Amino acid sequence: MTFEHSPRKAAAWMSGWLAAMVVMAVAGREATRSLHVFQIMEMRSLLGLLLLYPLVRASGGLAALRTGRAGLQVARNVFHYAAQFGWFMALTMIPIAQVVAIEFTMPIWTAIIAVSFLGERLGAARIAAVVLGLVGVAVIVRPATGHPDPGQLIALAAAVGFAISVSMVKALTRSDSAVAIIFWMLVVQSAIGLLPAAFVWRTPPPAVLPWIVVIAVCGTYSHYCMTRALQHAEATTTVPMDFLRVPLSALAGWLVYSEAVDLWTVLGAVLILAGNALNLRGAARPRAPAAA
Fold it and tell me: Which residue has the higher pLDDT, 178 or 24?
């Protein structure tokens, strides 16, 4: 299965990913006030299967769900489930801005994995994009010295898990459709989380149900956007675009929780935008023909 190499199309799909992830961070914070993370994740996966139906039908029905790489699908979702659990848990332990900022160590691990196992190239432009993005994150967060908070360590472990998951998704896009990848994600993660959720299950309060629906919608379609982005560009191109989630999360924090946006946040956002612009410019350059 082949797709046009287009950084612009990848950027467009990543915009959908960014919007969904920022909204889901707020919804996750609100939902965890009433329900355990295991239950939230199980409800999200089950609702996601219903929400995916229109995409399955538009893609040709059950034929679009076939996969010849069931083992890789399962392995990818084991890592993703663990990473997602850590991400939701971190939201309950440390500020949203810290969770998102620590999560942005993910491009470092993704780049290493993509170069080592997927045969992708890590040129000067992409290295500079990663460095500028991480510096921008550091400027925004300005981490305090001292012993790390357990929530910070959980967020870091989640970042590593997400990096492994993203690299596996890139490998899957070479043979499986975006709809198939999302379908098997929901099926495998529903199976993984069934027993843990059963032990902590409680009747959801009516007030929390809209947040669960938001999480399910954003969680399902955000991954569709990410998968489509990876079909149009390499992982080392698409993932640095995700740096934009840091200033967007800061904006969401200001709007929803009245968190102040200071000069450091603006400076960090400028560095992040500069890194993404450099990365996209390098990716858009025509590739030199391979030597015989």
Answer: 24
| Residue 232 falls inside a structural domain | yes
Res 219 pLDDT > 90: no
Helix axes 7-31, 263-284, angle to 10 degrees: 140
pLDDT above 70: percentage of residues in the chain = 82
Structural domain contains residue 143: yes
| pLDDT surpasses 80 at 126 | no
Look up the domain containing 227 and give its range. Answer: 7-284
Q: How many domains does the chain have?
A: 1
Query: Alpha-carbon distance 186 to 92, whole Å?
Result: 23
The 3-class secondary structure across 177-223, one letter per residue, is CHHHHHHHHHHHHHHHHHHHHHHHCCCCCHHHHHHHHHHHHHHHHHH
More confident residue, 262 or 90: 90
Terminal alpha carbon distance of the chain: 25
Of the candidates 272, 96, 89, 75, the one whose C-alpha atom is nearest the C-alpha of residue 192 is: 75
Cα–Cα distance for residue pair 242/17, rounded to 1 Å: 8
**Residue 1 belongs to a domain:** no
CA distance 182 to 187: 9
* Alpha helices, DSSP H, located in the chain: 7-31, 37-58, 70-91, 96-103, 106-117, 124-141, 150-172, 178-200, 209-232, 235-241, 245-257, 263-284
Q: Is the sign of the CA dihedral 65, 70, 73, 79 positive or negative? A: positive
Asked if residue 74 belongs to a domain, the reply is yes
Question: Which amino acid does the sequence have at 45?
Answer: S
Q: Residue 197: what pLDDT?
A: 94
Residues 6+ apart with CB under 8 A from 117: 167, 171
Positive or negative, the CA dihedral 136, 142, 148, 150 is negative
> pLDDT value at position 214?
93
